Amino acid sequence: MPYIQPFDPWKSSLCTCPPKYSLNPYTGCGHRCLYCYATSFIKDFYKPRPKKDFLKIVERDLRKLPENSLISLSNSSDPYQPLESTYRYTRKFLELLAEKNYKILIITKSDLILRDLDLLKRLRCAVSITITSKTLTSKLEPGAPSYEKRLQAIKALSEAGIPVSVRLDPIIHGLNEKEILEILEEISPYVKHITASTYKAKPDSLKRLNDAFPEKRAFWEELYLKEGKRLGNAIYLKDKIRYELINPLYKKAKEYKISFATCREALKMFENPQKCDGSFLIP
Ligand code: SF4
Fold first, then answer.
1. Can you give the pLDDT at residue 228?
2. CATH code linked to domain 5-281
């Protein structure tokens, strides 16, 4: 089975991304975010492991990939999760691309990406750093680098001339919506694009959040399990609530003249098709 695969082969109507390929050098993720959606479909997700024969298989996959394709790392794991310090699979993959004409979108929460600045400067790439909170990182994302380290990475990438976007998500109602606005102010000088989205509940991630924040349990269960609606394979907050959570970010991004999009929200007023993932920034 190829490791570089078409992203969203089901062509979900919720997804507004441009056509792209997806690659996960690791199965599972050591960042262990409570809200992670991938735990619902990948076994032992919080016990990450490197992909078997990774280099051999991606070299073979690349031979079949059309020139100029967009490859996104990663959509169901983090390419710079702790295992990358040991295995360096993401770095090895980037080295393979040095002489090739592909577009690379890297999505990560880790400042480990700065180790590979030398390579990133030589590739056609853009980086998307995900931030969910300033103060709750160790509880929400216990294996991931702190807010300060991510901010440092954003600044360093931007100073090195790498186009940077930030994913401000998931917005978890009652938990981080105020902080996320502050974060947008702080990162605004360094980023060219923002992608925002609200938390979409799945049974396992909602249980983890409820266990970590028992004082919010009744609130979230009311909003998701009683009033929420099913879209695709997750439970969404009502449209009105999601609009009210996203609109302040949309307005602030507009004020700062930063491009803005949402991810899988199905709220037409915020949609920015083909630009949502920040890959349009790739030179
Ligand atoms: S970094 Fe992404 S893939 Fe890894 S646990 Fe967090 S949400 Fe899941």
1. 98
2. 3.80.30.30
Locate the domains of the chain by residue range: 5-281
Nearest-atom index, ligand 1, CA of 29: 4
- Name the residue among 28, 27, 26 with its Cα closest to residue 45: 28
Q: Which run of H or of E encompasses 229? A: strand 229-231
Mutation pick for ligand 1 pocket among 45, 78, 136, 140 (CB with most ligand atoms within 8 Å) = 78
Q: How far apart are CA 166 and CA 168, in angstroms?
A: 6
Is the CB of 202 within 6 Å of ligand 1? no
Does the beta carbon of 78 lie inside 6 Å of ligand 1?
yes
Cβ of 107 below 6 Å from ligand 1: no
Q: Is the CB of 73 under 6 A from ligand 1?
A: no
Q: Is the CB of 83 under 6 A from ligand 1?
A: no
Percent of the chain with pLDDT over 90: 94
Of the candidates 149, 154, 163, 63, which has an alpha carbon nearest to the alpha carbon of residue 120? 163
Q: pLDDT tens digits for 77-124?
A: 999 999 999 999 999 999 999 889 999 999 999 999 999 999 999 999
DSSP string, 104-123: EEEEES-GGGGGGHHHHTTS
pTM over 0.70: yes
